[in-house]
């Protein structure tokens, strides 16, 4: 059967419509919609919610969560059911030891940062070695390491953290560059650029995505699979402990549980930002947007003037609802792509 040729104009219109549909299916679109809706709802609750001061505060706080989510993104992107449950413990450790090592003075900050980077990298290395060489499941290994880190922090401080944030760190955490622009905002922009470049423009990032997509193919292509996965855990350890340092500058002091919530929040930011939990697909910019969405949600609940317990319950329920909606949407997209592929194949065979 001979088919009539399709006019070029109709082909162009169809192509443009398809591109438009694909744009709206982009994994970052839902999180952007969530952010806008939450901001508008916050504006209804509080007239000053969309003021520059509050937006600056939201972006500054998001920077800390986005840094904690940096390493989590790399671990999850590597596939193999990789999730780092030691993130929160390392954030707490970074805040505690940041104050203790620096003794609250500017001269002690750089040596403290050097020691913390080594310590965070070492914890990440142990996580990676346990997962890749010993064969411990990631959830079990990182949860056990979180307990070790918490125990170390308790033993080191005897339950009473000492030292505070050095003045320069306080300036970064709470100060303003000019007007309502917080110092943490340009810091967050730099972190986002570094994360994007490493994940999307570096050889390591491309290798990590290949490993997450298909480990067997990565192994057959000669990639050092174990070293790549271990490196992702090392990055997670360093990023998490540095997030704790930023948190110290933001809060001014620390306690043993200051970073505990960052474990779940970092995972949620990664997932909401469009990274597949099975690995191989996602972006760090999506994680940054996911972090912003979560911080906006927290601010909305604060604007509702609810008791702290009620806020935590609602925050948990909202987080679960967002994650469920996102997971079902991704599952629906996969089903749609599979169905279209089958239909296309059937049409090709019929012709």
From TrEMBL:
The UniProt record lists the keyword Phosphoprotein: no
One GO term describing the cellular component: plasma membrane
Keywords: Cell membrane, Membrane, Transmembrane, Transmembrane helix
Topological category with respect to the lipid bilayer: Multi-pass membrane protein
Pfam (any one): BPD_transp_2
Example of a GO MF term: transmembrane transporter activity
Entries under CDD domains matching the protein: TM_PBP1_transp_AraH_like
Subcellular location: Cell membrane
Bilayer-crossing regions: 28-45, 51-70, 82-101, 107-126, 181-199, 228-252, 284-304
InterPro entries, per the entry: ABC_transp_permease
Designated name of the protein: ABC transporter permease
The organism of origin for this protein: Sulfobacillus benefaciens
